[in-house]
Amino acid sequence: MPKNRWMMGMLSLVAAITLSACNTDSGTSEEPMDMDNATEENMSGDSEHMNMDHSGSGEVPDDLQEAQNPTFEVGSQAIIETDHMEGMKGAEATIVGAYDTTAYALTYTPETGGEPVENHKWVIHEELENPGDEPLEAGDEATISADHMEGMDGATATIDSAEQTTVYMVDFVPTTGGEEVTNHKWVTEDELSAE
Fold first, then answer.
1. CA distance 10 to 12
2. Are 64 and 48 in contact (CB under 8 A)?
3. Torsion angles phi and psi, residue 88, rounded to 5
4. Radius of gyration of the chain from Cα atoms?
5. 0.70 exceeded by the pTM?
6. What SS3 class is residue 42?
7. In DSSP terms, which residues pair with 104 in a beta bridge?
8. Are the C-beta atoms of 112 and 104 separated by less than 8 Å?
9. What is the per-residue burial (b if ≥16 Cβ within 10 Å, else e) of 164-185?
10. Residues 108-149: tens digit of each pLDDT
11. DSSP secondary structure code for residue 159 in this structure
């Protein structure tokens, strides 16, 4: 009889572990546990942008220039038309900041190891280490000095494309639910539309 109790106890334990694993948040939700070090997984059906900070401090590089006449003014609302992360496309954004710069899509291998992150959007010119005054071009290499994602800061990146544009820092509530994402960096002007 004690052997049967032990077996029943083990079966109960295995069932509890299995059920709790089924209920574990796999990171596909836009509700990060730690808003400053949140992970982004499975956005747009891929895992290239894992460990992306959903929310930020709102700090920007000292040499970043505020946009003089942005299409979307600070404090205004816009609809996000891109899907950098799950729950982003179609969300209503509040514009927190607007800056004129060069935005780069780039590929890099995280400093923490792992697979290369391809075509990451966006890192801006002022978030590169000593990039010079002129915009970089596709194929150029640069060192990233931003930490949008784990392992990004200090990584060597290859520029995939460059776009002279206005970039926006935005707050939004994901369409998938969850907590508000604040000070998200970056969304470009063509990734927003008027309400």
1. 5
2. no
3. -90, -45
4. 20
5. yes
6. coil
7. 123, 162
8. no
9. ebbbbbbbbbbbeebebbbbbb
10. 999 999 999 999 999 999 999 999 999 999 999 999 999 888
11. E
